[in-house]
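Lecture notes, part 5. Sequence design as translation. It can be helpful to think of inverse folding as translation between two languages: the language of shapes and the language of residues. The source text, in structure tokens, appears below.
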């Protein structure tokens, strides 16, 4: 599988449905741990079904305000979206930006993983799937999500065999199997037996980005890709059930991090939801 020629070009958004971005290199001046995160929305293809939420409009307004905060206030922690698993606390749901979605079939794709295996999403039928979109050259939020995935796998214990962890490449300049394999090894994702970091031809990846409402902006071969950061939870029957929105804090120098307590909470939250879907 050969990527298209690497030719530096002006930063141009990929032609996909607009979605709020996760800035891969935010301003170093943004150091407050309560800085709102700009990606707490459902993918555009699901917005047509959002009229269902009108029945819960009063609660939704409060929940939206809650989810836009990195650390919810004590008063706000009494608010939670309806339809969440009862064993997910309101605080963890707020931290994860967790939302239920209509149980529609997850868009299909066939791509190549970090071991060179060409697989389809449907080949994981019978397992719950935790799906993200990652840049294999990312130095910002992707390594944080990677740690959360590793933590979740360990939290699952024996139940980890029934959960598949998946990422789809968003870097048009790093399409080789070697690129996703190197990232997988660097961040210990290869220690998860059911880990798959998919890549493929740019046209094929663009279709997947569009199908899942992921906005991608490439700024050049040496820069982190700006992209939507969303975790999809897919049930064993292939239907989407929940969405979560990863977050990161940044030091005054612009280095991404997340406090250990929040990393742990994310890992446990991912594990709990995935295990519930597999039960």
């Amino acid at each position: 599988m050969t990527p298209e020629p690497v030719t530096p070009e002006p930063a141009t958004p990929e032609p996909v449905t607009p979605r709020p971005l996760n800035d891969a290199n935010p301003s170093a001046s943004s150091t407050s741990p309560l800085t709102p995160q700009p990606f707490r929305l459902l993918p555009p293809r699901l917005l047509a079904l959002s009229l269902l939420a009108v029945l819960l409009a009063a609660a939704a307004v409060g929940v939206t305000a809650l989810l836009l905060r990195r650390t919810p206030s004590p008063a706000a922690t009494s608010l939670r979206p309806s339809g969440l698993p009862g064993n997910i606390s309101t605080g963890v749901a707020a931290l994860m930006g967790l939302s239920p979605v209509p149980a529609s079939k997850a868009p299909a794709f066939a791509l190549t993983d970090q071991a060179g295996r060409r697989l389809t999403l449907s080949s994981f039928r019978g397992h719950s799937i935790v799906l993200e979109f990652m840049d294999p050259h990312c130095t910002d939020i992707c390594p944080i999500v990677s740690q959360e995935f590793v933590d979740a796998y360990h939290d699952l214990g024996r139940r980890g065999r029934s959960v598949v962890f998946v990422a789809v490449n968003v870097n048009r300049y790093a399409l080789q199997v070697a690129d996703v394999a190197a990232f997988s090894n660097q961040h210990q994702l290869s220690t998860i037996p059911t880990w798959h970091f998919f890549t493929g031809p740019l046209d094929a990846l663009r279709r997947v980005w569009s199908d899942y409402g992921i906005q991608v902006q490439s700024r050049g071969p040496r820069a982190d890709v700006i992209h939507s950061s969303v975790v999809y939870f897919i049930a064993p029957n292939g239907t989407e059930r929940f969405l979560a929105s990863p977050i990161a804090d940044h030091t005054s120098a612009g280095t991404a991090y997340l406090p250990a307590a929040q990393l742990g909470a994310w890992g446990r939250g991912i594990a709990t939801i995935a295990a519930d879907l597999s039960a």
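The translated text above is only one of many valid answers, since several sequences can fold into similar shapes. DSSP finds seven helices and 13 strands in the chain.
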